[in-house]
Design brief:
By secondary structure, this protein is mainly alpha-helical. The chain has six helices and no strands. It is 64% helix and 0% strand. Helix 1 packs antiparallel against helix 2, helix 1 packs across helix 3 and helix 2 runs antiparallel to helix 3. The protein is globular. The chain starts with 5 loop residues before the first helix and ends in an 8-residue tail after the last helix. The mean pLDDT is 94. Bound molecules: cytidine-5'-triphosphate (CTP) and magnesium ion.
């Protein structure tokens, strides 16, 4: 992209990175809004009396998170298709051309990865004796990002490598913590979260 307009290139990279990650980004808000109820660990504790995952990780949160992210992604696919050339630089999440439902696989991988990355970090936090909701800067904001990347790289390696470069990853790692913090702050204001982060 050596078009002599580095500022424009950076903007495009940022837009592509956020667009690609938007389904994953939307998983947690859906889990926050519609989650709750039975915890995934069923209340189980480890040998030291610490919860395996904690009450913040529920089956309904997992399900609604994945569904919500795939739903948002499906809307992005439609926007991308109707937007045509003007937004042709954004991915349509469809590995093999514009097939009718070809985007579902990558969206599922992104969103399952996001929610499992989030579970993995809660598991780690509990092992470090951190209570539900305890702040783990950077980890809290990027756990789902890492989970999404692992999943799309496993299930759609060629599409992922052809769509998402190291520059996109860098942009995502800078922009997402900022966005994540602001949505959490809104959730806290709405009384859906106990902490503003
Ligand atoms: N949530 C859920 N199920 C999930 C993920 C999230 O029900 N699998 C809901 C819970 O109400 C949770 C809230 O979304 O409290 C915020 O999610 P998150 O910040 O990931 O959880 P925390 O409560 O901060 O817990 P942890 O310390 O384990 O991250
Ligand atoms: Mg949290």
């Amino acid at each position: 992209m050596d078009d002599g307009k580095p500022f424009l290139d950076v903007l495009i990279i940022c837009a592509q990175a956020i667009w690609f990650m938007l389904p994953s980004i939307m998983c947690n808000p859906f889990a926050v809004l519609f989650g709750g109820g039975t915890p995934i660990d069923g209340g189980r504790k480890d040998g030291k009396g610490r919860r395996v995952l904690g009450d913040g990780k529920t089956w309904s949160g997992l399900g609604w998170g994945v569904l919500g992210g795939v739903f948002i992604g499906s809307i992005l696919v439609q926007i991308r298709r109707f937007g045509g050339d003007a937004i042709g630089f954004l991915t349509d999440f469809t590995p093999e051309g514009a097939t009718l439902l070809g985007f579902i696989g990558p969206l599922l991988a992104l969103c399952m990865g996001a929610m499992i990355g989030d579970l993995a970090s809660s598991f780690g936090k509990r092992r470090a004796s951190m209570e539900r909701g305890a702040k783990a800067p950077i980890i809290d904001q990027l756990d789902f990002v890492a989970g999404s990347w692992v999943f799309v790289l496993i299930f759609f390696p060629q599409w992922t490598l052809g769509t998402f470069s190291g520059w996109h990853a860098l942009a995502a790692m800078v922009l997402i913590p900022g966005m994540h913090l602001s949505t959490n702050w809104i959730a806290w204001k709405l009384g859906r979260k106990n902490e503003p982060w």
